[in-house]
Structures are given as C-alpha cells and as structure tokens.
Design a protein that fits this description.
Structural class: mainly alpha
Helix content: over 70%
C-alpha cells in the first residue's frame, strides 16, 4: 500500500514548472556572471515558469 497518493496532473505540471524556473534562474545568474546579456531571456523564462507553477498549484486547490 503506497504511503502517498498518486500525483495529480496539475501537481506534476506545477513541479515541472518549478524545476524549469529554478534552472532558468541558475542559467540567468551564470549568463550575467559571464557578462552576457542573454541572461535577460532566462529571467523572462523564469518569470513565465513561476507563473505557470502558481497557476497549476491554485488550479489543483480549486479542483479538489
């Protein structure tokens, strides 16, 4: 018998979005540390993925 219930699709998508957000922030820091302006794209991607994470978490709470 499993200890945790199986993850819902919204929870899984929120987790993926969070991972993308963290990786985008790391890429932005590395880009800016190297003096590259492409880090702006990574910051924008982090913002979008952060919003996706919040959306899917709220959607999960509403549907339960």
């Amino acid at each position: 018998m499993p200890l945790l219930p199986p993850p819902s699709p919204a929870r899984r998508l929120a987790l993926y979005a969070l991972v993308v957000c963290v990786l985008a922030v790391v890429a932005a820091v590395i880009s800016f540390a190297r003096g590259s302006w492409i880090g702006i794209v990574w910051v924008l991607m982090a913002g979008v993925s952060s919003n996706m994470c919040w959306y899917y978490l709220r959607r999960r709470k509403v549907t339960q």
